[in-house]
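== Protein entry: sequence and backbone fold ==
=== Local backbone shapes as whole numbers ===
==== Amino acids and backbone structure tokens ====
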Amino acid sequence: MDEYPPGSLDHSVPFLLTLGVTPGNDNAATYDSALSPILKEQAILIRSELPALGDDTAHALLRYIQEHDASELPCNGKEITKRYRFRVRSAERSFLLPPRRARLPDGIEIPPSPTPPVLHSPYSPLSPISPLYPDGLIDTQWILKHQSQVPSVLLVFYTLVSDPTLTTLRDNQIKTDVNNLRGLLSQSRYKTRLSIILLAEQHSPSSSSIQERLENIRKGCGIDSKSFFLVPPHESPEELSRMAENMLVTLQSVAIEYYREMGRHSRKKRSKGVVPQPTIPPVSGTSQTLSLAGWNVRHDFKSAIFAEYRLEMSDALRSYEQAYENLLSSEIMEAIPSWSPRWNEGRLLADIIAVRCLRCLLWNGAYSSAARRWQSHGERMADLIDRRGRGTRNYGFEAWEARWACLMANLIEKAEIPEFTAATAEGKKNDGSLVESAMRLYLTPEKAVMGERLQPWELLHHTGYWYRLAARHLYKRRQFARNMPEEDRRPPSFSPASQVASRAFMYDTYMCPEPYEEYPLESFAGREDGWVDHSQLIVEMLIRARREFMKRGQIRFAAELSLECAMELGSIKDWKSIVELLRPIWKDMSFRREGWVGVVEDLSWTLRTAAVMAGEADLVVAIDYELLYKGFTTVQNWPYDTTRSLEGMTPKSRPRISVSDDMILSFVAASFVFRDEEGKAGQSAHAQLSLTSNARRGSAPVVFKQVQVALRGSVNSIILENKADEPGPELQQGEARLVDVPLTSYVTEDESSDSEDGSSETEKTVSLKGEAPLTLHAGQTIVFKLKIPLREPGQTGADSLTMSLETETFDLRHLIDLDDRSPAANNRWFLTGSKTKRIARANPLSIRVLPRPPKMEILTPTWKTQYYTNEPIDLGFDILNQEDVDAPSKLDVVLSRQEEALPAVFALEISGQEVQKVPAESETGALSLSGVSLGSIASSKSLGVKIRLQPIERTTEYTLTLRVVYHLSTDPGTPITQEKVLSLTIVNPFEANYDLLPRVHPDPWPTLFDPDGVQVDDPAITQDKPLIPKGISQTWQLVTRYASFASEPLRILDVDILVQTPPSTRVNHSKLDSSPQQHPSSDSESRIIRPKTMEEASFEITARKNTLDDRSPSALDVSLIIKWARITPPADQQEEDKPNSTTLPVPRFSIFGTEPRVLASVSYLHLPPKPKQDAQQRIIILTLTIENASNHFLTFSLSLDAPVDPLTKESEFAFSGTRQTTMNLLPVSRRSIDYRILPLVTGGPSSSAAGEKKVVVVEEQGGKWIKPLLVVRDKYFQKLLRIIPAGEGIKVDKEAGGVLVWVPFETLTSTDDRA
């Protein structure tokens, strides 16, 4: 855009001029009328008589307005966020306005006329002083007039004084000055809007008086309220910015109204359809004035400019298109001869209109229409120039084509289209950052043309496309310039006049220099500085295009442009720039991977030439090394020898170059193959390393100093050193050379400080070294046969190959990635030089190393089948060395647990001595001891190891891993591992269930009416005396049945309970001798319980409240304690049985309470035998005890009856005692009543017939159960009380309710006795 006249292509932004503030340090926004000397003499001076303001508030306000200048904002309708747009300029006290009517120049004769001549604007073709006179259309001076000379709004600053003695004087001065400015603007006949801003001083009077003064000033000046502003004092910067923002928003509407009026005036003049008469009729030239069509173009152009000021882009586009079509019509451009200056003026106006049409289309988002409009203008201008001009086959038209493409790129950049300047949503990474390659290459067409079939060039592409297109036209421009004859390239002073005249009509010089300046002869190139540097222009366009292509990831385009740019730079011998441009592309060139060898070759030769001239020795060597590849074209008389690469160069230091297959097309193809898929540690694996030279035939052999293969696994690398080549049998063409390479191992130690405590650790690495001839001739294949010792189990393979080349002048390292997917790794195994076989394996680069079968055994002679809770655990192991030689060994112990398991604590003993090393806990909770030295275990010898675990309280599972890492004394480099994993299950040896049965306490209850039983709470009396419980007492029997869940018989040493006594109760317990079942035992102190068997133990618990007043329930917490020991086998009698104690929690029981309780107990009374009876008869005594622990007097009714057998209609027993009675109980008391029962049922086995059912008699082995019909009822609540069995011989009838009484067979009477 810089080649066009200033301001001709600028975006039209409303012009705001400030007046009355002294200029600050930045004068960039200072007003400059830029009037010509003739117009400056006739200009109108607008001057303010009051002094300019210089305070901080005025400067801050002016600075804010200037900072929001919109002349450089993007021309993009989507990005309009501000409510105002101004081009801001500032003047201190005065400025010049161009004359509205131009005076006649001196010396012009006015023809006689009855009317005086009419003066016109100096920018009109009607005025004689205008360069457009008499038939010009319009030029850029009119555009500059509205952009920077005639403001739409004049903003004047004044001070509103606060001194009461000066207010009237200063207010009158303001009114006078404003009226003076209004008068001057009115005299100039411009429609500029006048606005006033008053800055109030710090100490102002009351608000009412200020309002009156402001209204007086406004009315006295005749200013509209929209153009009258006041800035109060003491405003903060934020508040001042807000006020300035609101003021500019208000002035925006004022400016829009100004330009709307100007546009209305232009349309009104066009609608008249009249050609105005010039001030003086033309008398020179053709004496032709501007036609009506020309005036229509002028008016349409003005209307479009004013619509653009108003941001009405659709209206502006319509007016521009109308002016464009009229301009290129047959009435204007078709009628102008090409030799006339008006021809180029018309072309310039057509370009300006076309550019402004493109800006309107881009503003409205019509991107495809903009691309079409650009193409259409180029085609129409080419057609017009071919028909009416000097043709398109010249450097002038190609210069215009390049300029036109560059203009499109500049418009796109100025528009700042979001799709071109930022990444799209699809081009974002996971972290939200933008990806440059996701920027759009071209924009999708708008909806208006979506249905049409568009060509690719009709889509709007990014700016790199247009810069590249401009470079193509610049190439053609230079070619046309070079094809000019020499006589046309001479300056006019050195050419005959006839040639100069003929040359004027031969070349198109529209906005470009004459032929002698475009491409002068060498003898005249230095005489003047105006000649064109075509290479510099091309390089500039190519670099701009390359930058845009690189942003969008178009690497191929960028590389192509870089190569073109380098060739242009080579023509001007800018070698350093070529190296900087091509080096990054040469290092990472996608053309190598895609097989574009020709592109790689061209770029390499270009870069090598520049590198030699720039002294880049390392780059020269790397390129020569790549050019040995036979795929490149042969260059005649070129020595393909890397040792001669630096001939003629003197580098500052010895170059050290590193290349890889990703950087170059390597002439060396490498392959590494293992013969076998598996191997064992301690053995050797057969492998082959083959190097094939794909160098150009006839090139010098390459002698490598060293070849190193990087391995993963126990062996770090294989290093082959070069040795003198021994003469051997002559090889035929295509035959490989096989070389046996003996390898020797050596160990290197590397110190590192990666340990947690910061101490340095020594890491040992094993490498293999050998010697072999490393001279590689063109087309030769060398196969190195290797035997690689396998040391550690795992995966061992080759990763990369490094070849070192050292000459007298440089050092080079070539890194090859030995990937099985590369073409070089062809899985061939050479049997002979000419015979191969294919390794049918997915990955022949690696071998799976199996562990060497260890002969170190981990024995567990004392390992128990099961371990139990609360038991100290000793785990003994024997490590037996069955190797043939001694083995230095280390032990690793890992004890892992489940997530919910408790962590275990263990200690390690070796040969009876405890290891002081503390086990470390991992993140998973596993405890481990690593690297515990066991010393050297002799052959056929064993070493005892013991792990001691502290008692574990609950059931859990552990996994114990023992790992012995050792090596043979004869082979310290091969570690061998023996591992044993054991499952350690900790179980509970016992489980139990419990019954708490009530019993009748033998002692009487205390009574509330006995003074001796009252508990005294006086501390003075009971201070030295022990507390004697005086409350109620109860007795319970705890029956425990415990079963063994052990896998072996255990010896029970003791069974006891632990009772936690409540604070308000005293509890005693004792162990009962036995239960009704007999326990056979041979030992009085202990007995053996076998697996899956159950034993029973009973305990009597007696509880008494401390005071008689306390009768609340109490919780009884009991634990069952079983002391046991393992049974030691007879062979291990030397080890003592270690007693263990297992504690089982008993469910919590609740004792005592205030509810009445009925206890039933049974005893047997022996009677003397009757006559004719040998055995004694026993009477059953049934005792009922009713306890009243409440504070109430209770009455109970008791009834007892003997049931009748439904078959015999006889009672089952006889009894003595009250059949029905009433029992009264005082508060906190208990009473008992006895019944004597004589069973009447038949003794012995039942004689009932089959199918008969006993209702009230239940027969069991050894006796029968009878059911007395016993009922106890609370007379007050009429509530039946549950009868609770309180001893042996009585139980609850679970089916029918009530109680059953046990009658032994010896107690029953026979039928004869009853008779």
In short: The two ends are 145 Å apart (CA to CA). The chain is about 25% helix and 30% strand. The first strand starts at residue 15 and ends at 19.
